Amino acid sequence: MRAQKVIDEFMRFSPIPHGSGNEKAVGEYLINWAKEHNLKCEMDSYGNVIMEKAASEGYENSERVILQSHMDMVCVADSDKKYNPLTDPIEVYRDGDFLKAKGTSLGADDGAGVAMMLYILSDNTLKHPPIRAIFTVEEETSMKGAENLDVKYLDGKYLLNLDWEEKDSISSSCSNTVSIIFDDEVKREKNAKRAYRIKVMNLLGGHSGCDINLPRASAIKLLANIIMDTDATIAYFSAGRVVNAICAEAEAVVVCDDDIINAVKTFEEAVKAEYPNEEKVTFIVEECEAESVLSKADSDKFISFLVSVHSGVFYMSKYTPDFVETSQNIGIVKLNDTLHIEILARSSSKFHSEERKRAAKALSKIYGYSLSLPSENPIWEEKGENNLIRIMKKAYNEVVGEELKVIGVHAGLECAFFSSVKPDMQMVSVGPQLYDVHSPKERWEISSLPETIDFVVRALEMMRN
Fold first, then answer.
1. Between the CA atoms of 9, 127, 62 and 431, what dihedral angle is there, to the nearest 10 degrees?
2. Using an 8 Å Cβ cutoff, are 121 and 131 in contact?
3. Which of 194, 190, 171 has the alpha carbon at shortest distance from 261?
């Protein structure tokens, strides 16, 4: 059964630690896998792995098809999970119709795509044109692998990006991403007052693009609002592990003369009333020690920034109903001896993307924080129906018996980089059903996989010249 073979491939490599920037071990696994399967393989200077498989009989004169996935994952864990993403394995298990991980993100984004590619490369009974399989690095952070991939590897007619998360659709366009970082030095003063540690935990979190329009709270915003209400002075603030995830937990140490315990309890009740789907959210207040705190001016400025800066949707699409056009997410906040804030903005509009950068520059001037914009990914623009989309629609209809949806996504896909250097190449993104990626609740719907892999295989069969 094809689907089980895909899962078997996933189970073999998924325990290998492979968070963004830590892909060396999984890259070596892929190199050895290719050798075992007698496939030509190489690793470029950035860590991308490229494999080649010859055409099956009767497809020798067909143009090459490129399959592509990223080998890295977002590594996040539950607050009570002891987990070092550099060394600790992902513990995958089956729960009914889902694959999950024990206390951490699963890595099906994009381990599912990697596994499907490995299955296709390993099954010599399949019919297909020449295949080039590209496994990229650091998609979840900088997209360095896709951005720096030599254009010579994109010598093909069609490209299937296997990084999609909806079983009944494919993507043919995506938004860009702009990384926005604020840094500053802070002044600290000795403290002789009673201090409190406040924790916000167990929020749903989720993908900062695909889930940004859902009624989900940001732990950063909630904690900042609590502190604003109590007029507390900050000693410490820490929240978020990755910028492209909605922050699910945050903690701060503050000094406050008010009845902070009752203030937090009242605020918690208001949050649960406003976000009924966040029923597991937990607020904890406990006394602690703080030898020093920020100056009152620096503390007030910091909290004012977090309260006032927007995290969520800015604009909905003018053309596609219920589709987010522009948003931004406050993903990481660290404050101790220095201040560090990371924001990720997304847009499928160049105009509004530039607006987000201007707004960041304005905030930098107002608050006096240093600003850097270290990375900006291109937009993969919608170009309408083409032959590849027609093939994918027909294959899906034959396998599933339903109409395949073709949509855009409010998230960055590596296709944007490929399209920027190969604008005439036809490409789509496809994959099985995943839920709550970039969070410890991430799960892969097993029953969605047979139809997905079968229709991808059928589409390859139809790519005969």
1. -40
2. yes
3. 194
pLDDT in tens, 46-91: 999 999 999 999 999 999 999 999 999 999 999 889 999 999 999 9
Distance (Å, rounded) from C-alpha 362 to C-alpha 359?
A: 5
Cα gap 324→318, rounded to integer Å: 9
Contacts of 464 (CB under 8 A, 6+ apart): 58, 59, 62, 127, 129
- Rounded CA-CA distance 19/107 in Å is 9
Give the integer Cα–Cα distance in Å for 232 and 307.
Answer: 14
Asked whether the bond before 110 is cis by omega within 30 degrees of 0, the reply is yes
182 by Cβ neighbours in 10 Å (0-12 / 13-18 / 19+) ranks as buried
- Segment 367-414, tens digit of pLDDT: 999 999 998 889 998 888 999 999 999 999 999 999 999 999 998 899
Residue found under tokens 């707004």: 359
Map out the domains of the chain with their CATH numbers. 2-175+379-461 (3.40.630.10), 181-377 (3.30.70.360)
Q: Is 453 helix (H, G, I), strand (E, B) or coil?
A: helix
Measured between alpha carbons, how far is 68 from 163 in angstroms, rounded to an integer? 8
Distance CA 133, CA 65 (A): 9
Rounded to 5 degrees, what angle do the CA atoms 217, 222, 224 make? Answer: 145
Residue 178 neighbours by CB under 8 Å, 6+ apart: 344, 345, 346, 347, 353, 356, 357, 373, 375, 376, 377
Tell me the DSSP string of 361-421: HHHHHHH--EEE---EEPPB------HHHHHHHHHHHHHHSSPPEEEEESS--THHHHHHH
Cα–Cα dist 75/20, whole Å: 8
> Which residue type does 154 have?
L
> Which residues contact residue 270 at a Cβ distance below 8 angstroms, ignoring those fewer than 6 apart?
none
Taking phi first (over 0 means left), then psi (-120 to 50 degrees means alpha), and beta for anything else, what does residue 107 get?
left
98 closest CA partner among 435, 462, 453: 435
Consecutive H or E run containing 307: helix 296-308
